[in-house]
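Lecture notes, unit on binding sites. The following record was shown on slide 14. It pairs a sequence with nickel (II) ion.
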Amino acid sequence: MVYPIVKFGDPVLEREADNITDFDTPDLHQLVEDMFDSMYAAKGVGLAAPQIGISKKIAVIDCSNGENPDEKLVLINPQILNGEGKQVGEEGCLSIPKFREQVRRAKRVTARAQNAKGEEFEITGEDLLARALLHEIEHLQGRLYITHLSTLKRDLMKRKIKKLQRSGDWV
Ligand code: NI
C-alpha cells in the first residue's frame, strides 16, 4: 500500500519516534514493504516512518531508485556512530516538497541499526548514502534538514510554506 506523505507542519515530523521492540512480525514486514512502495511512488531515495504518519523508528533508503535490490536498506532503531569529512550539496525532503537547499554534511557516515528480524548490523556510506543516512536518522529523532540552514533561510522558507498552506497548495 502506498501511503500519502505527511507534509511539514504536522507535529509527527518534529517529535522523536518510538523504538521498535517487536521484530519479525507480519505487521512489521508489511510496514517495511509499504514504506518502500510509498518511497518509490514519491520518487524519493529515503523515507522515515513519521513521514507516513507513523511515529516509529523505521527508515528505508534506496539510493538506486529501485534499480538495484542490493541497495535496499531497512534501518530500525538506527543511530549514527561516526561521521567524517564533509560534503556540501543540495538536499530536499518529501515532506517539504518543491524546496531544495545546500546542506553541509559528513562525507562518510557509519550507522548501527537493526533489520526487520531484529538483527543488528553496521553500515558505512559515502556521498549520497551518507547524506541519506543522516537525513533519515534525523527524521526519527524529530529533526528536519531545514534545522541545518541559517535562521534567515529557514524563516524565508517557512514564510513561503505558510503562503502555500494558505492557498491550499500544501496538503
Ligand atoms: Ni526527509
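Take-home: The first helix runs from residue 26 to 41.
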